[in-house]
Specification:
This protein is an alpha/beta fold. A hairpin with a 5-residue loop joins strand 1 and strand 2. The radius of gyration is 21 Å and the shape is globular. The structure holds NADPH dihydro-nicotinamide-adenine-dinucleotide phosphate and (2Z)-2-iminopentanedioic acid. NADPH dihydro-nicotinamide-adenine-dinucleotide phosphate binds next to helix 9.
């Protein structure tokens, strides 16, 4: 296994996040490979860490001053073993090959867990939508689609949103795809409700992460009622995580963005949540403004150079990291444990560093890793694809019920796989093993392709 990781590092130099994601899966599935030598014989793992296809391309566009701007676009088509490539686009200045490969790799196992037929992919650009006008975002999205459209299709590769890609960006991307291909198809998910989108898709990741936390709590005969919750981020996932926590009787005391976080001792109520949605989705403002409006809240800057994030250093029962990768390091994890947090449900992808993950597992916390806990988003994307194929749309209740059932089934699959391989209660092993076995068996059946 060490040799495998070493070779992987050699083939993918400098890809820190990708190696981090691969290492975790390799560690989890070792007992599966020991029990099933046929996976080793067929070199399943070696094949899984090599994307089926990587597309990198120039994205030129013209800004409002008439100046030419150039960004880099990517699509990682990681695995189509169990369905068309599926996974979001991320637009953020930090985007690079390593980050997108880690996301695409995790997406493969996540999508396998959803019970729906979806392969894994991820894409995006180092384009920063912050501070750009709607017209600039539109011109960028159109240019991005001018190149990537030829690799997409409702039965080939179906992207969606992620950081920096929401309803506005999906609209512009879809418009250009339709224009070029001259077909109205379900080639993207997260579409507007009036043109092929699914009810509950915006809510799905956050709601799903809370349903997953409820499932974990139910193993101890508990619910979210009365639980004190820390939420990071203030974007799509964070907002609907908070909404569902409120629905289930919990209390949310934090939100953040890349500059800082607010702590609201009185709790975020429905009105305050509506304010955050308007602040972030309409005005595209900063979370600092929350503390200007609500005097009971305090705002703290986050120092990116500090070795811990003070958001994770408050007394609470549950934590819902919903911003970005590696936002909880070893020290933050220790602070969470010390403050009594015993439920962690990851809305973000890989938000906890490996030493943090080990600490949660050693302390036997209810720790739901991203690829299980945040699978609700892509699950409802899968349901959007189904509705598009059938050319009809389900009600809110129908989609929400299916989402709840899927999260319950993912939880069950994790518990079962973890138990089968001798690590009961370890959702990291459970998610990695259950996802791996499904994809590996499909690859075995399809031969060396
Ligand atoms: P949004 O763009 O809506 O929101 C992202 C939030 O995270 C913002 O508050 C943003 O702050 C903050 N953030 C982003 N990057 C950083 C950073 N480097 N450091 C600190 N804060 C940061 O994205 P989503 O809510 O959609 O995504 C959040 C997480 O959830 C990501 O990890 C994503 O991969 C994951 N996810 C999303 C799904 C979805 O359906 N949208 C599905 C499954 C997982 P700021 O405004 O300052 O940038
Ligand atoms: O990380 C993820 O699962 C997403 N950003 C959602 C992907 C999707 O295709 O809905």
């Amino acid at each position: 296994m060490e040799e495998f990781i070493r070779r992987c590092e050699e083939c993918n130099p400098g890809e820190r996040e990708f190696i981090q994601a691969v290492s975790e899966v390799v560690k989890s599935v070792k007992p599966v490979l020991d029990r099933h030598p046929e996976y080793r014989e067929e070199r399943i793992l070696e094949r899984m860490v090599e994307p089926e296809r990587v597309i990198m391309f120039r994205v030129p566009w013209v800004d409002d001053q008439g100046k030419v701007q150039i960004n880099r676009g990517y699509r990682i088509q990681m695995s189509s073993a169990i369905g068309p490539f599926k996974g979001g686009f991320r637009f953020h200045p930090s985007v690079n090959l390593s980050i997108l490969k880690f996301l695409a790799f995790e997406q493969v196992y996540k999508n396998a867990l959803t019970t729906l037929p979806m392969g894994g992919g991820k894409g995006g650009s180092n384009f920063d939508p912050k501070g750009k006008s709607d017209r600039e975002v539109m011109r960028f999205c159109h240019s991005f689609m001018n190149e990537i459209y030829r690799y997409l299709g409702p039965d080939t590769d179906v992207p969606a949103g992620d950081i920096g890609v929401g309803a506005r960006e999906i609209g512009y991307l879809f418009g250009q795809y339709k224009k070029i291909v001259n077909e109205f198809t379900g080639v993207l998910t997260g579409k507007g409700l009036k043109w092929g989108g699914s009810l509950i898709r915006p809510e799905a990741t956050g709601y799903g992460a809370v349903y997953f936390a409820s499932e974990m709590l139910s193993t101890r005969g508990e619910t979210l009622e009365g639980k004190l919750c820390l939420v990071s981020g203030s974007g799509n996932v964070a907002q609907f995580t908070a909404e569902k926590i409120l629905d289930l009787g919990g209390k949310v005391v934090t939100f953040s963005d890349s500059n800082g976080y607010i702590f609201d001792d009185k709790g975020v109520d429905r009105d305050k949540l509506a304010y955050v949605k308007e602040l972030k989705n309409v005005r595209r403002g900063r979370i600092r403004e929350y503390a200007d409006k609500y005097k009971e809240a305090v705002y703290f800057e986050i120092d990116p150079a500090a070795d811990f994030n003070p958001l994770w250093n408050h007394k609470a029962h549950c934590a819902f990291p919903s911003a970005t990768q590696n936002e909880i390091n070893g020290k933050d994890a220790a602070n969470l444990v010390r403050n009594g947090v015993y439920v962690i449900s990851e809305g973000a992808n890989m938000p906890t560093t490996p030493d943090g993950v080990d600490l949660f597992i050693d302390h036997k916390l209810l720790y739901g890793p991203g690829k299980a806990a945040n699978a609700g988003g892509v699950s409802v994307s899968g349901l959007e694809m189904t509705q598009n194929s059938m050319r009809l749309s389900w009600t809110r209740e129908e989609v929400d019920n299916r989402l709840r059932m899927i999260m319950k089934s993912i939880h069950g699959a994790c518990v079962e796989a973890a138990g089968t391989y001798g690590t009961p209660g370890n959702y990291v092993n459970g998610a990695n093993i259950a996802g791996f076995v499904k994809v590996a068996d499909a690859m075995m059946a399809q031969g060396v392709v």
